[in-house]
Amino acid sequence: MAERGNGTGFVLGFLVGGLAGFALGLLLAPQSGVETRQQLRSRTEELRGRVEELTQRARATAEEAVESARAGFREAAEQARAELERRQQELQELLRREREETSF
Questions:
Q1: DSSP sequence for the chain
Q2: Span 17-41, pLDDT tens digits
């Protein structure tokens, strides 16, 4: 089964492919150089905005995942600590009983 990544490679490939296709379309379109450059500038600004938006979304998603993992780790650590204390008390109680039985 293929490994699942965080989608960064897909997004990057998508953007690069989109830019390449757009650039080829502009270069092969019958229009003046001024119009082509203007269109390229406009499209570049649009794509820059889209990349920034996707970057912000990815960052927010990563931060949420990190915080969720931290919370899960804290909870697991607290449960482990509680279990350790419970077992320690059980052992102390067994030891106390054993001492009482052997002292008589």
A1: -PPP--SHHHHHHHHHHHHHHHHHHHHHSSS-HHHHHHHHHHHHHHHHHHHHHHHHHHHHHHHHHHHHHHHHHHHHHHHHHHHHHHHHHHHHHHHHHHHHHHH-
A2: 887 887 777 677 677 778 878 888 8
Q: What is the pLDDT of residues 72-96, one digit of tens each?
A: 999 999 999 999 999 999 999 999 9
CB within 8 Å of 19: residues ≥ 6 apart: 47
Query: What is the separation, in whole angstroms, between the first and last Cα of the chain?
Result: 66
Q: Measure the CA–CA gap between 71 and 78, rounded to whole angstroms.
A: 11
CA distance 66 to 99: 49
DSSP 40-51: HHHHHHHHHHHH
Residue ranges of the domains in the chain?
31-103
